[in-house]
Amino acid sequence: MSSDSRSPLVVTIDGPAASGKSSTSQMVAEALGMRHLDSGMIYRTVTAARLRIGGPPASWTEESVLAAASRATVAPGAPGATSFEPRLDGAECEAEIRGEAVTATVSLVAKMPRVRIWVNALVRATAATHEIVVDGRDMGTAVFPDARLKVWLVASPAERARRRVLQRTGREPTAAEVALETSELEARDLKDRQQTQPATDAVWIDTTGITQAEQVRRIVELATAKR
Ligand code: C5P
Whose CA is nearest to atom 1 of ligand 1? Predict the structure, then answer.
């Protein structure tokens, strides 16, 4: 069921790793004059906070991750900005949360039920003060089951891998690079599969054969109709 037209607009954009959720959400938020919140960024910041404490990830307890989570926050960014930025101990941490160490351990942290409750509370508190476009895995199911518009973005694994390498290197990837990236993405999809579920009332958009501008145009049109 969707909330009525008087509640603040929340648009959820969910899907698997590298399906283009964050960049698409950012552009949709800009077009609609809303704010973009990337929930994966919060899981990454909590993971970075725990990594700073040290010790082998296999030995991390949920309590120790939750204690580290209290050092993670999101900030609305500079005046005029359309996104929320991650903060660790109050400082900017974008490069750290996108690094390999965090990417390799974030799924472990994201599996912890009380960590999910903590992240979801932070996402909901943020939505209480701003109209948001929020992206992740379970925004339309666990966090905002009443969101007025829910989008489920998909793309073939090879296309997701191609885009990810292109984004990282700035050039068309080789077949070998695509193959390697595809297997890494599929491994992360497998680790995240439990929390990566489309809402039954989500609008599916397969982005494999369409441009990002077209994806954004379709979502903005759907959101405008819901406003
Ligand atoms: O979106 P991104 O790939 O940056 O997310 C990093 C990780 O955070 C995912 O691999 C997943 O483990 C976790 N995540 C999650 N639920 C969300 C968003 C992200 O479990 N809503």
Answer: 40
